[in-house]
Amino acid sequence: MPSDGARGRRVPSRATLLLAGLIALFSGQPSQAQNHSESHWLEPYREPAARLIGAALADRFAWRRLAELTDSIGHRLSGSPQLERAIAWAVAEMTRDGLENVHTEKVMVPKWVRGRERASMIEPGPHAIAMLGLGDSVGTPPGGIRAEALVVRSFGELADKAPLAKGRIVVLNIPFSTYEDSIGIRLHAASRAARHGALATLVRSIGPPGQRLPHTGMLQYSADAPKIPAAAIASEDADRFQRMADRGTRVVVHLEMEARLEGEVESANVVGEIRGSERPEEVVVVGGHLDSWDVGSGASDNGGGCVVTWEALRLMKKLGLRPRRTVRVVLWTNEENGGRGAIAYRDTHRTELAKHVAMLESDVGVFTPTGFGFSGNDRARRQVRAIVSLLTGIGADRVGSVGGGADIAPSVEAARIPALSLEVNGPYFEIHHTEADTVDKIDPNEMAKCAAAVAVLTYVLADMPHRLGE
User: Fold this and answer.
1) CB atoms < 10 A from the CB of 213, how many?
2) Would you call the peptide bond into 124 cis, given omega within 30 degrees of 0 as the criterion?
3) 214, 235: one domain
4) Residue 45: CB partners within 8 Å, gap ≥ 6?
5) Closest Cα partner for 357 from 301, 417, 414, 410?
6) Closest alpha carbon to 296 in 74, 124, 127
7) Is 372 within the bounds of a domain?
8) What 3-state DSSP class applies to 266?
9) 170, 193 in Cβ contact below 8 A?
10) Coil, helix or strand for 136?
11) 300: CATH
12) What is the rounded CA–CA span in Å between residue 461 and residue 459?
């Protein structure tokens, strides 16, 4: 029997005690350095943050949804039947989740077809080359191209050896440094070589070496150079060519590619929402791109990013959390070889971009979350830092110096919208754009943490009493 002093006091239920434990474990406490006048508004969000984290980590729902997408539909190149199946699947699943205003928004996209392709060394001896044609490349003539290889280590060396490039297949063996620094090699190699009369280019993969995996990706042809076939080759094959060239060995390569562009076809961005309870006209946008390259199954690039941002809305719906502002998930189309979905979103929503409070993109995989990149004013940065303190328990409380992504960039730039990106620690660049981009590379628990981090940040951004940055 309780004592007199305990009479009238409600004994906490097991559920209440569990929730209190989650709050203590996951939500963290404000740093002493935080200005209380700027962070006191955060206190009411500790409880819903703990609920969102707890729900995200309670099962493997996000991973199972990604596995369904990638196992049943697979890779999703723009213009392909697989991408259109994925769009229809996403609409049906969002509707089943109970999201609001679920719809598609038309986007015209280029249809590039890889076709059959192969490359091999003919002289001094036969050797099959691990290769993938680069996106939007033209194909070879029927029967392919057979020519001596010119191996160079840089664009500068290519310029120095320009007279030797005519009539040859240029092999660019430039080691990968970072994606940002190396992507220009893939984009511009074909036109650089074509200006000197090359017949085709083979580019060392833009990605870390290992496992003899070629990485595909988009190229860009210049208007002042002929369009020649271009493919990525595994780093091991590029280094083999280099060793032979350094020894003065004549190397002859045979390249066949059926690659072709087949005009434009209709595709779509997928949109779903939780409408705001007080300021529905103000919007927080989250999302990733649903299209992928036609190798692997597009799990890390970028099915996972789509699922964890979508999961933020599903978790809010499941827990009955309706923020003041509207939360909108967008699954963009055609990020990989054109960016048409990003441009279409900006143009379709141009009149409402001023009401976009923030935009968040997830497109570097769903491995161990470390926090978020952020671009915005100083006051907004301090507010984001306060919000991510709620994620200390899952280690996702870092705020990086720059946020954004290819799909939100057109809208962000048009209306100076605060931009965020999920940051993770994992082998993204080792597997993206390769046959190895499959769901088995993703840990369900780490993916759940990514979903939790996005859900907490998104909910608070959409519900905070003042608009971000004000």
Assistant:
1) 24
2) yes
3) yes
4) 387, 390, 459, 460, 463, 464
5) 417
6) 74
7) yes
8) strand
9) yes
10) coil
11) 3.40.630.10
12) 6
For residue 299, the one-letter residue type is A
Known catalytic residues are 335
d(CA 23, CA 52) in angstroms, rounded, equals 10
CATH of the domain at 140: 3.50.30.30
In this structure, the answer to whether residues 309 and 434 fall within a common structural domain is yes
Model confidence band, residue 40 (pLDDT cutoffs 50, 70, 90): confident
Domain tally, the chain: 2
DSSP 277-341: SSEEEEEEEEEEE----SSTT-IIIIIHHHHHHHHHHHHHHHHT---SEEEEEEEES-TTTT-HH
**453 to 119, 212, 362, 373, 409: CA distances (angstroms):** 44, 34, 11, 13, 22
- Looking at the chain, the whole-number percentage of residues with pLDDT higher than 70 is 92
CA 302 – CA 442 distance, rounded (Å): 12
Question: Does 421 share its domain with 341?
Answer: yes
Assess if residue 279 is contained within a domain.
yes
Q: Is residue 2 part of a domain?
A: no
77 in Cβ contact with 292 (< 8 Å): yes
Rounded-to-integer distance, Cα 462 and Cα 24, Å: 23
Clarify whether residues 47 and 168 are in a common domain.
no
Span 266-270, mean pLDDT?
98
Reduce the DSSP state of residue 267 to 3 states and report it.
strand
Residue 309 lies in a domain: yes
- From the list 69, 28, 75, the residue with the least C-alpha distance to 310 is 69
Give residue 198's domain range: 115-258
Buried b (16+ CB within 10 A) or exposed e, 449-464: bbbbbbbbbbbbbbbb
The region of weakest confidence among 3-7, 14-18, 309-313, 330-334 is 3-7
Domain boundary among 226, 242, 258: 258
Element (H, E) at 400: strand 398-400
Helix (H, G, I), strand (E, B) or coil at 365: coil
Residues 301, 438 within the same domain: yes
Bridge partners of residue 113, in order along the sequence: 260
Residue given tokens 């044609």 in the structure block? 133
Distance CA 393, CA 409 (A): 31
**54, two tokens:** 């707890």
Q: Are 297 and 71 in contact (CB under 8 A)?
A: yes
Quick check: 54 and 46 in contact, CB under 8 A? no
For the record, the structure tokens of 256 come out as: 């066949």
As given in the structure block, the two tokens for residue 403 are 């946020």
- Contact, 65 vs 312, CB < 8 A? no
205-231 residue pLDDT tens: 999 998 899 999 999 999 999 999 999
Residue entry with tokens 């063996």: 173
Residues 356 and 420: their CA atoms lie apart, in Å, by 13
Q: Are both 186 and 68 inside the same structural domain?
A: no
